[in-house]
């Protein structure tokens, strides 16, 4: 069962490899093939991730390139390294971020009637800027981990015998100061446009941010049925146990997304899944009896429709915390 990452266009190499153990190679939507982060390209070459460019056919790359160049005049306000040096520099608000993109499009798109915003282009620009910020943040975080590696080794040597270091996937992502936690509603709106242009989308969507899942679920009426796998190890340990879980999960979710089983039946099947190795992570699963585009549109207050009819009947949202 192919898992699609939402609402981000960048995830780390560690996340990609761990997702492969639970769901197989995930799919990552990209706003454009321009300025692709090197780790994503490397994971793609290794067949650890599939890449999809739903908006590519609508892209005027010359205009997109010129708008991005225009945005670089103010994008430094979101530069984490610059902010670290200039502590007084405040990140742009979601409204200012979007307003600056609109202004750049109006300036560069002289043929646009009255300089009006082109929504697909605005979404592409937003997603490319957000992708660059996400990559920059986690690249810097990785560099810091390498610098403190010797300290970590020393702390481990000083720990009690048999004491296991616990790490939750979302510990860095839950920090409100990380780019991932900012502009979630705008990210979801832009990401949903790509979903609407992908008729081949599966019904399984995975995120690493609880706020992204909650933002969607809070606006759904009626509330979807949900199921949680509590206290499992992340990253999962490769072996027979995780292979059995992966196979059983895929079979259960495939039946639900194909419309062959209802949400209550899917929950019962999920309750019978093999146990995963114990740990501190949590897997939250929401089962929505709507096709993906309609499910996201309902939650986001939009009337977007899929470009072509979807073969998927129901939707599954998963959050790894």
Quick summary of this structure?
Residues 158-170 have a biased composition (Basic and acidic residues). This protein is an alpha/beta fold.
Helix and strand layout, with pairings?
Elements: E1 3-5, H1 13-23, E2 27-29, H2 38-45, E3 50-52, H3 61-71, H4 80-85, H5 94-108, H6 119-147, H7 149-158, H8 184-196, E4 204-207, H9 210-217, E5 225-232, H10 240-257, H11 263-271, E6 278-288, H12 292-300, E7 315-320
Parallel strand pairs: 1-4, 2-3, 4-7
Antiparallel strand pairs: 5-6, 6-7
Rg over CA atoms, rounded to whole Å, is 21 Å
Biggest beta-sheet profile: 5 strands, mixed
Query: What percent of residues are in strands?
Result: 5-15%
Mean pLDDT comes to 81
How many β-strand runs? 7
General description of the model:
It is a single chain. The chain has helices at residues 13-23, 38-45, 61-71, 80-85, 94-108, 119-147, 149-158, 184-196, 210-217, 240-257, 263-271, 292-300; strands at residues 3-5, 27-29, 50-52, 204-207, 225-232, 278-288, 315-320. The longest helix is centred in the middle third of the chain and has 29 residues, at 119-147. With 321 residues, it is an alpha/beta fold. β2, α2 and β3 (50-52) form a beta-alpha-beta unit. Residues 79-89 and 164-176 have low confidence and may be disordered.
Please give a handful of descriptors for the protein shown:
12 helices, two-stranded parallel sheet, alpha/beta, single chain, five-stranded mixed β-sheet, 321 residues, 7 strands
């Amino acid at each position: 069962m192919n898992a699609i990452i939402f609402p981000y266009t960048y995830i780390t190499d560690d996340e990609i490899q761990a997702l492969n153990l639970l769901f197989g190679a995930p799919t990552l939507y990209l706003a454009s093939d321009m300025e692709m982060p090197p780790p994503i390209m490397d994971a793609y070459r290794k067949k650890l991730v599939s890449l999809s460019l739903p908006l590519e056919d609508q892209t005027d790359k010359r205009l997109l390139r010129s708008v991005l160049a225009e945005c670089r005049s103010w994008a430094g306000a979101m530069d984490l390294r610059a902010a670290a040096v200039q502590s007084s520099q405040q990140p742009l608000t979601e409204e200012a971020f979007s307003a600056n993109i609109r202004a750049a499009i109006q300036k560069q798109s002289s043929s646009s009637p009255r300089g009006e915003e082109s929504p697909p282009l605005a979404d592409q620009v937003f997603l490319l800027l957000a992708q660059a910020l996400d990559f920059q943040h986690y690249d810097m975080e990785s560099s810091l981990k390498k610098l403190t590696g010797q300290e970590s080794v020393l702390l481990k040597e000083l720990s009690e015998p048999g004491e296991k270091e616990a790490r939750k996937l979302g510990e860095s992502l839950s920090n409100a100061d990380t780019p991932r936690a900012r502009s979630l509603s705008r990210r979801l709106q832009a990401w949903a446009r790509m979903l609407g242009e992908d008729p081949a989308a599966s019904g399984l969507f995975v995120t690493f941010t609880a706020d992204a899942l909650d933002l969607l679920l809070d606006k759904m009426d009626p509330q979807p049925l949900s199921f949680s796998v509590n206290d499992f190890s992340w990253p999962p340990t490769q072996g027979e146990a995780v292979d059995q879980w992966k196979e059983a999960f895929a079979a259960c979710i495939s039946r639900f997304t194909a419309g062959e089983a209802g949400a209550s039946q899917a929950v019962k099947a999920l309750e019978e899944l093999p146990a995963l190795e114990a740990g501190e992570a949590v897997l939250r699963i929401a089962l929505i009896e709507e096709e993906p585009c309609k499910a996201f549109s309902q939650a986001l207050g939009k009337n977007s429709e899929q470009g072509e009819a979807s073969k998927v009947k129901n939707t599954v949202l998963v959050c790894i915390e």
